[in-house]
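Q: Give me a backbone?
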Amino acid sequence: MFTIFTPSFADEADTNAQNLSVKEVVARLDPERIAGTMFHEGAADSRIAVRPHTKLLQWRARGNTGRTLWEILTRTPDVYFFPREGPIDTMFLSLRRTLRLNTSVVSYVVSGGLASGSYAPARVRHIREADTVIANNSYLSDLVKQKFGREAATIYDGTDSRYFFPPAARSETSDHVIVLYAGSMRPYKRVPLVVQSAARHPQVHFRIAGVGEEEKVCQKLSAQLKCGNVEFLGHLTPAQLGEEMRRADVFFFPSILEGHPQVLAQAAASGLPSVAMNIYRPDYVTSGTTGFLAQSDDELREKLDLLIQRPDLRRSMGEAARLHSQKFNWDDIARQWQQVFEQAVAKRRRR
């Protein structure tokens, strides 16, 4: 048996994309082969809480760095998985060098900005100092090789079939079409484009799920443009988001800065065709088959218009998206991660 520490949260209610991914992986690792340690604030995911040889560290208002480092030094893990950008990660990497800890660091590259050179110094350090680097889509793997000379295999994030699956049937007409956006409401997500699209299609219902600093901006824009066809849904749980995706006909995602957004995989698993930007080259969308990846804002609007107008295209692309989503099965993905951990431990122990 070997041990893994990850600075990720096991909370059932935590919907952060990175924590969701780690929870799905940890919940599926062989409990007889791997012991794990994670954080939690509230009630943990029941699948993780009942795992043998799994330790959950309580995250408190203060003192977490010291307590966590003491835990690591007294129970040195074989693998430190998915370092983040906080003081715990910085201090651990420093201690690993100073004390020559025999812990393998497995970094997971999931964030956008690598192409433009806007990566945070901590993320760069994690790539350079890791024993193993994995990226969550093929474009990021290529960028890691180009910019750092590091080989990075690709392991995708999956979709949770408990929440994301197709409806029994969708509308076959152009009446009562629903366009859904889901994600945070930060400037780079460009949610105002969703509102502007609603102004161009007053007969179509636009539903916006998410919260963030641009929420009031979008609400004000919606009022200015007299968009009675826009509804702001706020924060949704995975179960609620799955229900919204089954109600929708098109998933519209105009963001220009991403790693590999899970929401596109969730839309595909729900049988939704997506319209997104190609700038971050998401593998979750096969352009022209499961949806469209636009090169410009003009093309983004054009492809959205096309799907709104063509129920037959929505149907064929939605079915293709559902089939494509089967590549992103969490059980298969967890097996890939277990192999990565086993190989990383074996390689470190040979040193």
